[in-house]
Each structure stands twice: as C-alpha cells, then as structure tokens.
Write a structure and sequence with these properties.
This protein is mainly alpha-helical. Helices cover 79% and strands 0% of the residues. The protein contains 15 helices and no strands.
C-alpha cells in the first residue's frame, strides 16, 4: 500500500516530464509550420485554417476512443505510449513530403497520436491525485509541458540561425523532432506507474450517462471554443504586424514561459477558490488578448500580447481538466475526458475555418474581434452557470 501511494504521488512529476520532452518536440517545428505552409508551400490562409482545424477535429474521435478504452481496460499507460509513438513516426516524415495531401495526411496522423494519448494521460493524472491537490497536480504537468514549449522555440531559434542560408532547414528541423520524443517514450516506459482503480464499473463502458453539470459545462465550453481558432493565426498575425521570421520562435517562447510559470500557482489557486472562478479569469484574459491582437499595429505590442495570452492558458488548460475530474467519478472519468477533449477539438474545425475566412474576406483584425466577442459571451454564460447553480460541485 505504501509503495502504491508513493508511485501515485510521483506520477504527476514523471507525466509532466514526458510532457516536457513532448513539448520540445512539438514546439521545435510548430511555430514555423504556418509560415512554412504559407511561404514555402503556398497555402492560402483559409486552407491553413481548414487544414489545422480538420487535423484537430479528426483527432478528436481518437480522444473519445482513448477515454472509453481507458475505462474499459482500467489501464492508461499503454494507450499514452501508443499516442506518443504515432507522433514519433509522423513528425519526422514531414521532411519527406511537400504535397498538400502528404502534409495534411501526416498532420492528421500526428493529431491522431495526440488524440490517443490525451484522454488516457488525463485519467492517469486524475487517478494519481486527490480532490484537494488535483488542481496542483494538473498544474505541475501543464507547467513542465509548457517549459518544454519554452525550450523548443529557443532551440528552434538557434537552428534557424545556424541554418539560415540552408534551403533544407525545414527538413532538418522536422527530422530533429524525433529525438525528444524518444526520451518521452523511455521515461513513460520506465518511471510512470499505472494506478489501479478500486471502483467497480456500474454501467456499460459505452454509456454516455454522466452528471448533468458536466454536460452544462461542456455546452458553455463549446461556445467558447467556437471563437478559439488555431494559434497558427496568432503567429501569422505577428508576422503581419511586423515581427521578423527569425524572432517569431522567441515570441512563442515568451508566451510559453508565462504559461508555464503561472500554471502551478493558478492550478493551486483553483484548489482554494474553486475551478470556475479561475476559468472565468482565464476566459476574460483570452477576450482581452484577442482584442489586443486585433488592435495591434506595432511589433512590440505582439510581445506583450503573447505574454498576456500565456495567462489565459495557465488559468484554463489544466484547471478545466481538473474541473472535469471534480464533476465525474473514477469509473467514467475516461469517457468524460474523451468527450471534453473531443468537443474542444471538434470545435477547432469551424473556429479555424471561420477565422481564416474572416481574415481573407475582411482583413487580419476581424478574426480576433470575433474570437474576443465569443469569449466574452462565454464568460457571461459561465458566470450565470456558477452563480445560479446552488448546489456545489461534488468533490470526488
């Protein structure tokens, strides 16, 4: 029993560590991907939005599958391993194709890998923490994940500088994404421990019967997600305002630094004052940041906005997942995370397509005004939900 408790308490750190290396792999290439698709392959903005939204939304199916499999087999670690392994295959292969369908196919495969691992990883974190420390546990994972996303863009900046005159620089960078993912798989295999569930399954594994409060929260989350387009548009907006290609990875690293630094304290704050209040702060930060991106007309403003945007992520990503755990019980937590992750992902398709369309038809500011307005509406909806729902969230 003591050993099991020790394994359980260590899991958030090691899960955070695998996320750290996963973050490095992702953010070695993600900040330049929209620039590569636009500048090298010649994709239009609406095609970039459609492609990235389609990738994320299609991957959402596998987030549901991952959640149900985690509930059915009561094991999450092998599912997480499979997800990272798929990304290990798909990312380096970007170096070998330049066709539209080839790139979209590999991005789709990477999205499937993300979908496979996400829900199962969330279950591992939730089962490794108690209700009173769940916000901190998710905060630790988000912090380490995001510090990887600080290191990744800094490494990218160095690579772009060293390879600035090399026409094959993109290919080299895509190949290098495999190295940190190899460390991720090794740490997952050796150090992360499965947490056996003591609860019996009282309903069919495929049942969608979950607490009403969970579904109300998901409805409000869907509203918010419609205005939350791919972060690729933030990178394109930075370039549009005048931030140079070489400096963009550093701007992205600044965003991730603020995100990582605030994740643990804000996750712990949600343990004390309630998840909903912290999420409200996050969504309001999003609305203000997007308004700022719409109004920005000088490059120095982009630096400040990306830093502020990191606060939105810190108050929302881990805290919202901790809130899902609060709203559900262990026996159906996998399917709850599957639904949560898939809804957010599915909304990425219309959100990103709408943003791309608004950009092309009405100008680069308009997608951000739209996102800001949708977020403000979601803030009001969540406030009403928390204010007039008298019954407290059951602490599981």
């Amino acid at each position: 029993m003591k050993q099991e408790s020790k394994n359980r308490s260590r899991n958030p750190f090691f899960i955070g560590l695998i996320s750290f290396f996963g973050g490095i792999s992702q953010d070695i290439f993600l900040p330049i991907l929209p620039l590569y698709l636009s500048g090298v392959l010649g994709f239009g903005k609406e095609i970039i939005g459609l492609a990235e939204g389609f990738v994320t939304s299609s991957a959402s199916i596998f987030k549901i599958v991952s959640g149900f499999l985690s509930d059915k087999f009561r094991k999450s670690k092998p599912i997480v391993f499979a997800g990272y392994f798929i990304s290990l295959i798909s990312r380096p292969l970007l170096a070998l194709t330049s066709s539209v369908f080839g790139v979209i196919g590999l991005r789709l495969l990477d999205g499937i890998g993300k979908g496979v691992k996400d829900s199962a990883k969330d279950v591992l974190i939730a089962e490794s923490t108690s209700a009173g420390s769940r916000g901190r546990g998710f905060g630790i994972v988000r912090a380490l994940d995001t510090f990887g996303s600080v290191v990744g863009p800094i490494l990218l900046f160095g690579l772009l500088y060293l390879l600035r005159d090399n026409d094959l620089k993109y290919r080299y960078i895509f190949f290098l994404t495999a190295i940190p993912l190899t460390f991720t798989l090794l740490i997952l295999w050796i150090f992360v421990k499965e947490v056996p569930s003591v609860e019996k399954i009282s309903q069919p594994v495929l049942s969608l019967k979950l607490p009403k409060r969970f579904y109300i929260f998901m409805a409000i989350m869907t509203i918010f997600a419609i205005g939350n387009s791919s972060d690729a548009f933030l990178i394109l907006r930075a370039q549009d305002v005048g931030v140079s290609f070489l400096v963009i990875p550093l701007v992205y690293a600044l965003f991730n630094f603020f995100y990582a630094s605030a994740s643990i304290p804000l996750g712990s704050l949600s343990d004390k004052i309630g998840r909903e209040k912290v999420i409200l702060i996050g969504w309001l930060s999003f609305a203000l940041a997007y308004l700022g991106f719409g109004l920005a007309n000088q490059s120095w403003q982009i630096w400040l906005l990306f830093a502020f945007y990191g606060i939105y992520y810190a108050t929302t990503e881990g805290v919202a997942k901790a809130f899902v755990a609060d709203l559900t019980t262990s026996e159906h937590r996998g399917r709850a995370y599957g639904i949560y992750n898939s809804v957010v992902g599915l909304a990425a398709l219309p959100a990103s397509f709408i943003a791309g369309l608004l950009w092309e038809k009405f100008g680069p500011q308009v997608p951000f005004y739209f996102g800001s307005a949708i977020a403000a509406f979601a803030v009001v909806a969540l406030f009403v939900f928390t204010r007039f729902n008298a019954r407290k969230v059951s602490v599981i």
